[in-house]
Structures are given as structure tokens and as C-alpha cells.
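Why this split exists: single-chain examples teach little about how molecules sit against one another. For that reason, every record in the complexes split bundles all components of an assembly together and asks for one structure covering all of them. Below is a record exactly as it appears in the raw files.
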Amino acid sequence: MLKLVFRAGISKRAYSAKAVKLTVETYPNLQRGDYGTLEESDLTRFRSILGDSSVFVDDIEGYNEDQMRKYRGQSQVVLKPKTTSQVSEIVKHCNDRKLAICPQGGNTGLVGGSVPVFDEVVVSLSGMSQIRSFDETSGILKVDAGCILESTDQFLAEKGYIFPLDLGAKGSCQIGGNVATNAGGLRLLRYGSLHGSVLGIEAVLPDGTVFDSMHSLRKDNTGYDLKQLFIGSEGTLGIITGVSVLCPARPKAVNVAFLGVESYEAVQDTFSKAKRELSEILSAFEFMDRESQVVNKKFLKAPHPLAEGSDEIPEYPFYILIETSGSNKEHDDAKLEQFLETSMEDGTILDGTVSQDEAQTRTLWAWREGISEASQIEGGVYKYDVSLPLSKLYDLVIAARERLREANLIGETDEYPVVDPVGYGHVGDGNLHLNVCVRRYTKEVEKVLEPFIYEWISQHHGSISAEHGLGFQKKNYVHYSKSDVEIAMMKDLKRHYDPNGILNPYKYI
Amino acid sequence: MSSKIRILVPVKRVIDAALKPRINKTNTGVESKGVKFSMNPFCDIAVEEAVKIKEAHKEAVESIHAVSIGPSKAQDILRTALAKGVDTSTLVDVGEQEIEPLQVSKLLKKVVEQKDSNLVILGKQAIDDDSNQTGQMLAGLLGWPQATNASKVVVEGDFVTVTREVDGGAETIRAKLPLIITTDLRLNEPKFVTLPKMMKAKKKPLEIVKPDAYGVTIEERLEILKVEEPPARSAGVKVSSVDELVSKLQELKAL
């Protein structure tokens, strides 16, 4: 699933003035599908549905480019509907005219799923950003798809609740996009996946029909659970316009510890120990290799938390961030303290720190969350988001680094395309993020990495996409993780509900 | 031969600076239930500076003592101070009562006398009441020189040179110990405390005393009548052209 990059305020354009190559130039074998072409009469129709101010034909580069500056489409028009019935009318018109559509949320996706490839009509959900209702007893929240994750969570915070999903891109990503991509994020360990917390969905099907399960209950065993089809469908079966989510009570006491350990084995040992000893208050367990901290330091431009004020990053090969959330500060503090002390004494961890105030908590999280954005400051990043058995998780980074070294692609100077591969991720969920930080995107690097990485994952029984989704990047690699029978059923579904193939084409399966 | 420096750092426990305080239902103060408390950021800077001075002048600095006047939970911030490098600490346990700057200063004067301190480094203000008075009052009660709003501190023998943040620039002053310094934001950036130091801090002394032990009776001189939110700012308006902007500004008599 998607996970955007972070902090809305920082424009990706600040990093590089180079224009993003058109996706069709990067992939010259791509063929435009047999779709209609946008005409003046279509714009007139869109204007009559939405009003002039919600149809955009100028200054739409931001909707054509993905945030990694890797993909660029050639859409001529961006539509920003404000209501579900407007979405329905737009989609119906596009289906009648066989115009392809690219649905778009906060455009923070990492696999090129949220931007057009050719001239698809972009339907942006940013205009639908109302909170529909919140039940303070049950914790059921109903929102428009375009609500920003962070502001929704702030709304919930005032009521003593929390959104069951948190990720680096929270400042710009939208809940509809989160659900469409089944975003995983930082607190999946605690609150589970969106397949569990989403209770209902409102979506517009490819023929304009409105699918509405917003009134669903927590327990409901009547028939197929159709909403699940939309969770992680990446806009290929329908455009999600509304979401109903069950939100848990917001923890009153939150602690964050940041630790240094001597090996990947020690990361695993610390994780087993944390599960045993912190049990119900453990809410996040993240690991980062030292290389990721080096890259992040260039971005954050601050002393590392374990550096004691010096400008060096300590020589520990791995770092861990542990978050605990609970309802009683004294209880949590005592538990965490005990855990950290015994782990220091038995040598599982070598050093560490615990945040003393809210500002420090945010700083410690930035050393984990900032890696995503930091990875591309030298030019770009190849991102791999994989699930693997825990014991094999980091071997993939070692294998990729070796392979890039052998090909003589890694170096400190500009002639080498690769800066360094870095590994980090959600240990609690067996989810690794391998970011190959590059100075520029080249075929050479891509050929060394792919399909090598996908084959490696397949051999080790992993998934080629743990949470970022398939999008454009991984469309051709589904078979490394799914069987022929599974893929055939997916294609059947898509054909049945979208016979013209107008929704988010060239992607997914 | 210059005399040994004994530093005193008073610290205050306040609602975490990164959180938005909410006014309580009776409009008599801010809601403190279920809210995270931390060390006042200016006090954090004071602790950091004291530790830096000690590290730079190991021979000259004999000890750093931290004191907090507050509820028993203020022990947490004293432990943090000890972990950062403070040697010993005292909590003057006044329960949940809010203490005014003058009372705080009177108590601190007693602590200074008891610990024979000759350099007091404290935050220029606490972020909860924003009084910005304690350092000045303490200097008055002790009859010591004071250097407020410090952005740089240099210790040389018995003399201390302090750069102060003042309107329109910086002012550099020099004084002989004993001295009161209050800290401003730019003085330093507090570091994270590492686990080994936190563990060691648990064994450092933290004594708890009641205010009457110092012979000080706490009497409040001020009565809080009402606490209210500042008026909300009205929303801005978008204009579509420069002409419209100019005419709006004229309407508002801003031009």
C-alpha cells in the first residue's frame, strides 16, 4: 500500500530541477489502450456536472508526477468532485465515452499507482474532505475519502480517539487512498490492518453505480464481505468516496525508546524480548540499519539521538525504535525501564535513549520516518517493500548491496548512479523497506535490481509488496507472490466489474 | 586561586511544551488531568549549560545541585536532570499548590544558603505562567548580580562573561561570582540522555523536603479571577486580483 512521503510542506521539487521523464519514454514498449480521446464536449460535460471551478486543465503537472519523481503521465484534465453523486456522473460519462480514469488521493504512492500513464482523466478526491459523523460511544468514524489522515487524527484526538493507521505521509495522504491501497504503516502491530478496522465503504463502480456499505456493523455475517474487495484494489474496481472506520481509544501514555544494537540477530532478540516483557503496551517496533541513519542525517541535519551531541553517528550497525502506548504512565514507565535495564545488562542492546518530552518523541520518530524522504535527496530512490520471514528479512539488503557492488554501481562520487542501499522497516510485521538511494534513475541499475530482487523474495517465500501495493511498478511481478489461480480470479473480477477497463489502467494486474 | 564553583539549577515541571493546553471547565486554570508533564524547556537548557560548564571546567566546578519546587511527581524531572549530569538533587514537595515567583525565590534563597551555591543557572521563565520573575527576584533577595536571557556563557576563573539577548542585538556583560544567570532559547540545544546515564541516575541522591524545613511559609499574594482563551482570529479572505487586494486594504484603512 501506499505510504507517502512525509510532511506536506516540503516540496519534492526542492531537491532537483530536472524534469521527470515521461513514463511512456522510460517504458517505450507501453501501448495506449483502446480508449476514447478527451474532446471539448467532454470538458463541457464535466463543467456542467462539477461547475467551472472544479475542472482543471492548466497547471496540472503536480497531478501527473508521482512524488518520487519517477513517473510522469500526460493527463489533460483534473476533476475535483465534491460529492459522491458528482463522482458517479463523471464515471458514468467516462464509461459511456470509454475515457480512462486515474483516481487520485494525496498522490503520495510509492509504486506509480496514483498518477496517469497516458492521458487518463485524473479524478482527485481532494474536494471531498468532510468528516461525515463520529459516534463517541462506539468510536465509529465516517469520512469522505479525501480527508487528510493527519487532520482526521487531530479531530479524533480532541475526542480521545485515535485513527488506527499512522504513516510517514500522514500530512498529505488521504483516507480514501489509504484504504484503496490498504496502507499498513507504523502501528499495524498494535491496531491490525485496514481489512479489520474498516467497517464500511462507499465507492463508485466503473459504470457509475454507487456501492454503499457505510452502515455496516462490526459483526455482520450476511453474505460476501464485498467491501474487502475495495481495500487494496488501488482504484481498479471502483473509486472510494467514503469510508467508515472503527477507531480505538487514544492511549494516554506514550513512550519512545531509541536503541543501538550490534547485529540483526540482536534486533530479533530484542523483538522477542519486547513482545514478552512489554506485551500489551508495545505499539511499534521498527528497525533501521546504520546506512539509513547516515542518509537521514543529511536530511535532518541534526545530531543523532545516540551521538551525545557529537556530529558522528555511533558505530552500531542497527538501530531500533520502540513505542509503548498505554493508559497508565507509571505502569508503562516501570515496565519499559525494567525491559531496557535488563536488556542493557544482558548485552542485547548496547546503548539507547528514552524521550523525556513530546519534542524528543517527535525527534526520535523523525529518525525513523524521515528515512523515506531522505532516501531521495540525492536524486531518486528505488523502493522495495517486502514481507519476508523475520530471520531472512535483512539478508535481502545484504544481497542487493553485494550485487550492486559487483556491478560497480555504488560509489561516493557522481559517476556512480547508486549512493547506497538502505534497509529499515516494521520488524513487528515482517516488513522490510529496501531503499536503493540513487543519484539518477538508470536502466542499468534497474536491470541489476529487477527481477533479481523479486526472484530472491519468491525463493524465500516472501511477498513482493507488503504495504506499498502493485501500482505501475510491480504490475508485471505479481506472479512472484500469487499463484495462477489467484491471478486468474483477480482478472475475472476486474473484467466483470470494469469490462471497458477504464479504471486505473496499465497498473495492478 | 579562584574559588570552587557550586552550581544550583532550579527546574520546574510543566505541561509538555509541545502540547496545546486546554482551559478547565471552571475557567480557573488549565486542565492538568491526563496531560503529559515534562521539564520546562528553559530549565532543560539551564541543566544542559550547567553540565557543559562542568565538563569544560572539571577542576573548577565542585558540584551541580538541582532543585524543584512542586508536587511529588516532579521527582521525574529531577531524575532526568540527574541523568543529564547533575550530581545531587532536592525536591521541595509543596503538593499540587501553585507557587508564585516570590515564594519560589524565597525558597531558592534558602537552598542557595544551605548548599553554599555561588552560581545559579535557571530558565528565564516557565512556559506555564510565563512570569519571568524568579531569577530577578532571587538576585534581589541575595543581593547578587544577575545576567538574564543568556545566549552565551563563558566562565574564566571567578569571572563569567554572558551574552544577553536584548532588543535589537546582543549585550555582553561580565560579573564576578556569585551570580544568577537566566537562560534563553539559543544558549544550547539539550541532548538526549543515554540509557547508561539514566540507570546511573537512579543511584544519585534525591532528597525530599517540605517547605517548612526551610522556615518559609507559603502565602499567595495573587488571586486568579479567570482564565480564558484568546479571541479566535477571524478567517482570511481570498482575493482574485491585485486591484481587489488594493481596494480591500483601503477598505480596512491599511493603505
